[in-house]
């Protein structure tokens, strides 16, 4: 008999993430007197070493921080190279063809798509600057001290976790393009051409050197020093567009999180260029629907249809707000939610965007004895990002430019020095302005719908964070196609009922499709209660 995982109750602080060694690194920092931001950074930095298919030094980062009084948001995503143009991408697509990906959940129009690999989708990595900026505002321990565990694992090696090994093996088996820009990938990330096996010791000494330079320079070396020069040189030699000037111009952006009310709580996400508004749009629609009183089939139907409508608007309007206005406030207006809610019938729909009034990823969360809490997510996207690995430095560059559109009329059209539609989103829950806690579900297009399902399981079904994370999930990709986990399919007549409503339901056994999540809530009796993903190597630790 399989017993369900129980939540963690911790009196002082907690760390939850998808890899136990990284969670332990964060907990060690808490126990040394570091705060929740210190613990989040130690965890995030260690994740680049111990879970490299999903995130790396060359990726992006977003975070929400409760400082004890209010929420702060950090958008540490990078921009496209100044030399990148739509015409350049179209010319390359005509020559080689593009590899369509799940960046926009199948919602892109037919025709040319951004390539998934190589230099064209590479944007400036924002994670190292994000680590620095979070530490400068909130950190308490020395910045370099937060790199200790990560550097040690990179230098001396560590046994690869089973879930990470499975993701790694899928990525290597899928293969990739060839060319001088990819030459370093096999040397760094394979063992005699294969992925490391579960429990096999793996080292990345080049990454240790890179992390040490970032730690000692406060990330300055990455954007203006020897690492920046190495990226510039490798791009110039192998057909890339990113330059030292692009790296030197990079800045993170502090933003105010945005929210909607749901069941007497406030659900918080970061504003665009991320897709968090898709989750808020869906929850805004569902807040006037008594899901707890509905049969499971009808409850899931409402959730799926609300998520479709949320994605339709997110895909139509989310872009770089520094370049084009994004109607975030209008999209989240209750009146607009009512109009969108009216579109839901008892049949599966094919929603389109409304017209509001204008005006591979890892997730972690931490909490400390002082009440500070952090929701943080970082990624290179897909598996190993662009697969362009910087020689002698041990890390892959992200391919976030895959999120751009090639439609010249779209606000998210590819172009120079702009941020693309971004899939990674941290979440946070409050009630009447008081913190409940951080949460997130990673997994590309799954993330907003994972947020909706986690919040609903918590507030509609009254489940603790572990039980909410363990609730069987569904995944909507595009059109009327819906994947469900086997545990949902086991519910009597559920699949048949959804199919009768017009949903094209498939039972999928692959857990990676349904995302991996974490959550930490403040406990009414004091301390915290935490949950971590049971579909992968998730761990929640506390003291």
TrEMBL record:
Keyword field contains Hydrolase: yes
Keywords: Hydrolase
GO molecular function (one): hydrolase activity
The keyword Amino-acid biosynthesis appears for this protein: no
Name of one Pfam family that matches: G_glu_transpept
Name this protein carries in UniProt: Gamma-glutamyltranspeptidase/glutathione hydrolase
